[in-house]
Each structure stands twice: as C-alpha cells, then as structure tokens.
Design brief:
Elements (H helix, E strand, L loop, with lengths): L13 E8 L2 E8 L2 E6 L2 E5 L4 H11 L6 E6 L5 H8 L3 E8 L2 H6 L17 E5 L2 H7 L4 E6 L19 H10 E11 L4 H10 E9 L7 E9 L20 E4 L25
Helix pairs in contact: 1-2
Length: 274
C-alpha cells in the first residue's frame, strides 16, 4: 500500500462510496476500468496490477505441503486473498483488516479482485487492528503475510510503524508456526527492517517486483526463527551485520514491466493519511 498522487486522467473518476472511520475519511472511487482507494485525500492503492501483492503470498507458500494456515495482514483490493485461495496447498485463510468499509466493498465493487473470497468457506475475516489482534490470541499460522501501510520504513498512519518494530515482530513470531514463513510487502527496500529480521530469523531473502513507476516493490521473506519468541518486547536492535540478505528480482512480463500498481513511487515523500 503506497501513497502518491493519482494517475493523470483521461476520464473523470467517480466516487463509489465515502465513509468515515476513527482513522479519517476513506473513499472508494472508479477511474475508468479500475477502482482506487483514497484515505484522507491521499491515494493508497488501486486495481491496476497487483503482481507484488500476489507474489507476497505466492512466495510464502511455495514448495510447502498443505493444508497450510495463512494469515493475511491487510485485505486491500484483494489480490493477496485471491492468490492464497488459488494455491492448492492452502487450507485456511484468516484476513485481519482494520477498515470495516474495505471488507464491505469486497461484497460489491471489489469482489472480482478478491475472487469472491469472502464467501469461500476457508476464509475468516476479522475487522481489527492487526497488532492488537496478534497480541490477543495464540493460534499459529504456517505463513504470515503483511501488507500494511507502505511497508516498514515509510508508514503514513500513526501506530503502524510499531507492527514492523521489535514489539510487532515479537507478536508475529509468537503466531508463526514452527517452519513457517513471514512475508512482508514494502514500497521500497528497508535496510533497518532487514536487520531486525536477521536478528530473529536465520534465513532472510528479498524479492524485487518491477513496477511501472519508480523503483520496484519489495517482498521480504523470513524463515527459521533463531530462538523461541520472548514473552515481552525484544531488546533494542544492535548494529547491522556486515552481510546483507540475498536479493532476487521477479522477472518483468514480456515486453517490459506490467503496468504497476499506482502505489509505487520513486521514493518516499512526506505525506499524511492512513
């Protein structure tokens, strides 16, 4: 989920719904054939591509024997949910989404993009703050896929940064089953976050997903916890190790990169929103 000015338009956008939540105003609008979500006047995401959102799940469940229990942090426009349900190894999916309106839109305008996933018997949807929800339960998951805000180092909603810090990663670790995979979507590479991952997991890989605008979207994959998660917040992260994680690029489609999600800036710029 990225924030940047919306596309230059050849057609006028049409507002499909406008709601207020504790985090401010949320708008669903249609621009030609595509839907866009705007929060407090700031563009968040659209339905133009979704390759990186699909890769988030695909990489997390690849070469795993089922039935897998998958946790999706963030519903968005539904690409990740559709990918999870298309994977034969996935037996159950829990989606935690903070905005009730986003869930409701997947009953109407966004249903095609999540492949009608809300009606799939394998799916459980929870409307809650993800970090609070993680801390309140004990169920474990074979894959935890996080796509909240713009990723670890460019959050625009107060409080979301905690999910990617020590407290959030400890909460995720307690919910990750032995042998499980944590997959994290990011708008750009996040070196400090990669350090925190390497402090906790023995294998951390990075996948770059080309997009039309700016640098690639980034998927972090972490496996093999170094130690059982602590009962409380982890100690402060120490200096970064000299060696960085392996990085792999996801090939572009033939003829160049596919039209990127509108959420792929050349770099972070100061902004506000949720």
């Amino acid at each position: 989920m990225l924030t940047q000015p919306a596309y230059a338009r050849r057609v006028s956008s049409v507002t499909l719904d406008r709601v207020s939540s504790p985090r401010g105003e949320l708008v669903l609008r249609r621009d030609g054939e595509h839907c866009e979500i705007v929060s407090n006047g700031v563009f968040l995401m659209d339905t133009r591509d979704g390759r990186s959102e699909r890769e988030l799940v695909r990489a997390a469940v690849a070469r795993r024997a089922g039935p897998l229990r998958v946790l999706l942090g963030g519903l968005g426009v539904g690409f990740s949910l559709a990918e999870a349900l298309a994977a034969s190894a996935v037996g159950a999916v829990t989606v935690v989404e903070v905005e009730a309106a986003v869930v409701a839109w997947h009953r109407t305008h966004l249903a095609p993009y999540s492949a009608g996933g809300l009606d799939d018997p394998r799916v459980t949807v929870v409307v809650a703050d993800l970090l609070a929800w993680l801390g309140a339960g004990t169920e474990e998951y074979d894959a935890v896929c996080l796509d909240v805000d713009n990723g670890p180092e460019w959050t625009v909603t107060p409080g979301n940064a905690a999910l990617y810090g020590d407290t959030g990663l400890d909460a995720v670790d307690r919910r990750l089953a032995p042998g499980g995979t944590l997959a994290v979507w990011s708008a750009a590479e996040a070196p400090a976050f990669a350090v925190r991952l390497r402090d906790r997991w023995s294998t951390v890989d990075t996948r770059l997903v080309p997009v039309r605008r700016g640098g690639p979207d980034v998927i972090y994959l972490a496996r093999g916890r170094r130690a059982a998660p602590a009962a409380g917040p982890a100690p402060a992260v120490g200096p970064a190790p000299a060696a960085g994680p392996a990085t792999a690029a996801v090939p572009a489609l033939a003829g160049g990169p596919a039209p990127g999600s509108a959420s792929s800036p050349a770099g972070p710029t100061p902004t506000t929103g949720s």
